[in-house]
Amino acid sequence: MALPQLNVYRHDYNARALITLAGEIDLVTVPLVRATLAECLHDGIRTVDVDLTAVTFCDVSGLNAFLMAHRLATDAGTTLQLHHPPQNTARVFDITGSGFLLRPIRTARAPSCRIPAVAGGVL
């Protein structure tokens, strides 16, 4: 059986860091996530954006790592936001009340559900 794999890429732009995660976040790989996020705080990064587009799985250990990193970042005056989570990961974050970690997705306004009145009469 193959071990889960997670690739981590960090790109710094002045006091902002973009962390791109690709693969599975679980008990085996979460120490790498924690270490990467802690390094950002240690390096004086003020805004940490985490791109989850290529994450194929995230268990509760990953959720806990993000929650702890968010708390530490907030205490340090740093902003931590997660971007583009897979649908199943976003759902877990929402169900557990952790949706505040996710950057709000801007969507087009939904069409109105109102039924138009028929001219000259009542429906």
SSE topology:
Blueprint: E1 6-13, E2 16-25, H1 30-42, E3 47-58, H2 60-75, E4 79-83, H3 87-95
Parallel strand pairs: 2-3, 3-4
Antiparallel strand pairs: 1-2
Would you mind describing this structure in some detail?
With 123 residues, this protein is α/β, with parallel strands linked by helices. Helix content is 31%, strand content 28%. The protein is built from 3 helices and 4 strands, in the order ββαβαβα. It has helices at residues 30-42, 60-75, 87-95; strands at 6-13, 16-25, 47-58, 79-83. It has a 4-stranded mixed β-sheet, covered by helices on one side. The longest helix has 16 residues, at 60-75. It is globular and about 35 Å long. The protein starts with 5 loop residues before the first strand and ends in a 28-residue tail after the last helix.
